[in-house]
Design brief:
Strand content: 15-25%
Distance between the termini: 29 Å
Structural class: alpha/beta
Number of strands: 11
Strand order of the largest sheet: 3-2-1-4-5-8
Bound molecules: NADP nicotinamide-adenine-dinucleotide phosphate
Length: about 200
Amino acid sequence: MTIGIIGAGNIGQAIAKHLASAGIPASIANNRGPGSLSSVVQKLGAGITAAEMKVAAKADIVFLAVPWSAYEDAVAGLAPWGGRIVIDAMNAASLGPDGLRPFDLGGRASSQIVAERLTGARVVKAFNTLPAAALASDPKADGGRRVLFVSGDDVSARQEVAHLIDRLGFVAIDLGDFEMGRRLQQFPGGPLAGINMVLFP
Ligand SMILES: NC(=O)c1ccc[n+]([C@@H]2O[C@H](COP(=O)([O-])OP(=O)(O)OC[C@H]3O[C@@H](n4cnc5c(N)ncnc54)[C@H](OP(=O)(O)O)[C@@H]3O)[C@@H](O)[C@H]2O)c1
């Protein structure tokens, strides 16, 4: 299994850090190109390599962790997706002078919109509910395991993502399809967005 991360900011780096800790190699890409990521990948640890977008996007599982306003530009030219899994970690909101403002999605699930754009990809929403600092912190908090929520219309893709989440030390809670994800984990509005929950055995 190969893993690619598109977006090397707060969220992309937090994900890469957990992959490195779990001994899972991954490539990470950003807008400015791999040359700009040399100190970042050094800090992230063994197994994380800086790559061109096209290389990261060819992985079996691809994380999408760019601003919502940039994702269409980011994925342009990266097709075909060929049944590969894309984990949508994005929130459809932008930070302005008045705080976070949601994009008007016409009441639709943001990940459904992403899935329609990425024809052939098996899109799963996950890694979007925790603030970046909480996502980056130890998933095995205080003897429990930090929770990540998963949703999407492809059941087997959700299961694969839940398995990866488990390997990273988190616990996955499967919410169901995109519509359930919109209601529960989409930010803003979903009651689980922003919730830092730890499950104890
Ligand atoms: N920050 C949070 O607490 C948080 C929590 C949950 C979810 N999210 C969501 O996660 C996503 C990423 O947030 P973030 O805080 O990690 O953002 P960020 O720190 O600003 O990083 C954004 C990354 O996206 C890359 N990027 C921007 N435009 C691109 C393009 N056209 N093509 C390729 N890469 C591009 C940037 O590349 P460069 O490095 O070259 O600039 C950067 O690496 C957003 O959708 C956000 O809503 C954020």
